[in-house]
Amino acid sequence: MGGDPYVPPDGGEEAGVPDPYGDRALLTAAMAKGYDAVPAQERDRLRRYLEAVVAARPAPVHTTVAFNAVYFGYDLGGDGYGGSPLRLDDFPVITFGERAPALPVGAMVCVATGSDPLYAEVVYREGAHPEAGDLGDVPAWVSGAPAGAEGPGRPRDGAAPRRRELLVPDLHAFGPALALPPARLHRLRTRGRWLNEDGHVVVDVHYPSPEAAGCDDETAYADHLLTTAREQLLSPFVPVSLASLVGGTRDDDLRAGLLGVLDTVRGVLGSSAALRVWGHYAVSRASLADSWRHTGPLGGDDLRSLAAAVERAATPGKRRYGLTAPNIMYTAIGPRLRAFPGAAELLRGVGYASAVCRANLALADIVRGESERGLFPNGSRVTLDDAFEGGGVWRTRHPGATEPSGDPLDPAGRGWISTLPAPPEPEPETDLEPVDLPLADDASLGTGDLLRDDDRETVWRAPLRLAQLIGGWFPLPPRMARDLHRSLGRRHTVRLEVDHDGETLDEKRATQHVTADFDGAAGRLTGIAWPGGFHPGIMLDLRWLRGGTSIRLATTRLEQQVRVGDRETGHCYDPRVLTREDVPGSDRHGDSAAGLGPRQLVMRTVRRCGLLTLDGHALMDRSVLPSAVYGRRPARSQAAALEWAVADLLAERVLEPAVGSRDAWGQPHFPAREREPAIPLVGYRPARRVIRTWGGTDTEPGGAERLAAQLVSGHLRRLRPGCSPSDAQRAAFREHCRRLGKADGWELPHGYTFVTEHIRGH
Question: Are strands 705-706 and 698-699 parallel, antiparallel or unpaired?
Fold first, then answer.
């Protein structure tokens, strides 16, 4: 039956769960800008679908798997991706026990079996180090070790580390038509040649660089989609193409849009009241409640037994006379679960991923609810130490009261850190205080730009510096200072009009009488009372009409409010000055490191002393960090506290590892230079996140939210049985394929039509 050109609905929500191939696309252009940029109504529609995906899938749903579901069109009726027109020939092939490229969670793969291909989606991944004991006890150096580590304190030499990993494939993700019969799958597991006995794939992963091995899951998956799976990403048969969402196929635009959509998906999963999230994995609260009520293997009794075993893991069997060194034990959850009677069958297939996530969430809830920041009444301190190896490695220390307390659920990698060579003890004076670091001498940092200088006016733009904020002054450009000096003399009172774009200032701040003070060719305004919203790095425009005694100082508002690091701002700023000077211990009242904790000292030192890039990144030689904080080699306890703080910040992705080089004079460089020895760097990357849109949404009387007109990208829509697309929609799809550069995607897949780009809204 022929169909008329599709006329999109202009409003209203469908009653059931939204469908990626439904009348309205689930992904919108706003989602490519990140979670904070997405209107609430669009978030709600995506949340309803993803909650249904989590409920339908037998394994915990990783952020990247949730992205796959909405981007590639996962069918909730039982066909999975089987009803989506994906090209299976594009999938990379993996072979059990052999060398493999890095495959992140979310990768769609073909598992080699020697006969029929086995198509699957990687839904879970963990480190598979061979040294874990039967009860999950692992050597300290394994917990938190970088990829390729060869022993205690011995990272692998070379630039291409490798690591043994266990991948859990969902062998039923593509529906029953592409799944192997149970009997044949059982034979594959029994033979142990293509899959292990649990239906998992163990591979030796070779990473191209240490940086690639240390990437977070979302970045690794974005790299995978933009390289290995690029044809799959840019397929014209997905519900709505990423290229349509970002308006092009440039790599930079695609990467930014892809990371934005992943951020949106992660935010939606984390905001759902029906879900719990462990790391990047989401599980339904209903399934967790069922597992606690379950009385069989890996049920509530076993979960409580696991928590008790981890809590008591480091408790001495007998009381010893006198003081003893602390006892520390590391427990990997995956191997520990296998020790429970009757658990073997439940840990096969994707059941292993479910059991590991449930166990970690149970431990996390007990640590939160029954301990004081990880310290239990029996004196043991329990913390998560490694979120990747062996399903998660938990650290138990007894006694734990003397250990610095941080967030017990931030994987700090203290096991690996404890095996690193300790710094030499300093001179007898070990009671050092952190030094007040001077600002690094960065050429042209914050010097300002002359925007206009003619017979009528002078306009100059420069960022506000910390010293200027504290001292209440601001420099004048040389020509303005010279001309004002000639007409006013060495000191003169001038009128300063302050305009903080988008903000209302009180009269004392909006109009001020300040002093123009000149010393030769240099001049400055002194006695300025800076408004409360001004911070180091905010860009200021200074405007002077020639012949007058009034000067206007103004900020420029951004289109959207953003958070940069710990700073929230809605105005233009210089990222380099913000990194250098808006550091812990520095504000309009002063600049001092006194009283700062180890984390704040690390952040202050890296940002104040590191190599500074044009976009505000700061990178520092990790080996000199303790000396930079204290001005000399600190005591071992102080250095250890700083190293733990670095590990915490790296785990939270506030800092990131990098590799540079050191020249013959001891100066670090980034990127690393050829023929110079490589050195580890620790870098501050000021993540920039939109937190609200100026203007936002309109609200109608009664509190109902009304969306503004919205551009809806062209997308595929599944047709009802017996319907077919019109000629106009076939032609529109061919044009859509041309824009994507797809010479092989001319015709609509059977059972689908194409919804052309249109404006939607009231």
Answer: antiparallel
DSSP class of residue 302 equals H
Retrieve residue 257's tokens: 């849009």
Q: Return d(Cα 176, Cα 79) in angstroms, integer.
A: 7
Decide: residue 349, CB within 10 A, 0-12 exposed, 13-18 middle, 19+ buried. buried
Domain extent listing, the chain:
1-25+714-762, 30-130+158-280, 285-417, 449-571, 575-690
What letters, b where the CB count within 10 A reaches 16 and e where it falls short, cover 218-235? Answer: bbbbbbbbbebbeebbbb
Peptide bond preceding 671 in cis form (omega within 30 of 0) = yes
CA separation, residue 388 to residues 146, 265, 313, 615 (Å): 11, 21, 20, 31
The DSSP code sequence of 612-659 is: E-TTS-EEEEGGGHHHHHHSS---HHHHHHHHHHHHHHHHTTSEEEEE
By the 8 A CB rule, do 143 and 393 touch? yes
Single-letter code of the amino acid located at 708: A
Alpha carbon distance 382, 530 (integer Å): 47
Scanning the structure block, which residue is given the tokens 């701002």? 569
Q: Token match 């030769």: residue? A: 520
| Burial grade of 30 (CB within 10 A; 0-12, 13-18, 19 or more) | buried
pLDDT per residue as tens digits for the range 319-376: 444 445 679 999 999 999 999 999 999 999 999 999 999 999 999 999 999 999 899 9
Neighbouring C-beta atoms of residue 181, cutoff 10 Å: 9
The Cα–Cα gap between 143 and 411 comes to: 9
Q: How do residues 553-605 score in pLDDT, each as one tens digit?
A: 999 998 888 888 888 898 999 988 999 999 998 988 889 888 888 889 999 99
How many other CB atoms sit within 10 Å of the CB of residue 38? 25
Of the candidates 545, 547, 567, the one whose C-alpha atom is nearest the C-alpha of residue 691 is: 567
- pLDDT at residue 731 greater than cutoff 70: yes
Helices 63-72 + 217-226 axis angle, to 10: 40
Find residue 163's DSSP bridge partners.
205
| 616-627 pLDDT, tens digit each | 889 999 889 999
Residue-wise pLDDT for 735-746, tens only, equals 777 777 665 556
Distance between CA atoms of 515 and 473, rounded to whole angstroms? 9
Q: Is 614 left (phi over 0), alpha (psi -120 to 50) or beta?
A: alpha
- State whether residue 601 is helix, strand or coil: helix
- Determine the length of the chain: 762
CB 170 within 8 Å of CB 56: no
What is the pTM (predicted TM-score) of this model?
Answer: 0.64
SS (H, E, C) 413-456: CHHHHCCCCCCCCCCCCCCCCCCCCCCCCCCCCCCCEEEEECCC
Residue 269 has pLDDT above 90, yes or no: yes
The residues near 220 (Cβ < 8 Å, ≥ 6 apart) are: 102, 104, 212
Task: Give Cα separations from 228 to 90, 101, 217, 225, 679 (angstroms).
Answer: 9, 10, 16, 6, 30
The end-to-end CA distance of the chain, in Å, is 32
* pLDDT at residue number 14: 47
CATH node for 449-571: 2.40.330.10
Structural tokens at position 306: 């696991």
Distance (Å, rounded) from C-alpha 105 to C-alpha 117?
20
Which pairing describes strands 201-206 and 99-101: parallel, antiparallel, or unpaired? Answer: parallel
| Helix H or strand E segment including 397 | strand 393-398
Q: Write the burial class of residue 253 (CB in 10 Å: 0-12 exposed, 13-18 middle, 19+ buried).
A: middle
Short-list 586, 577, 582, 490, CA closest to 540: 577
User: Distance between CA 23 and CA 26 in Å, rounded?
Assistant: 9
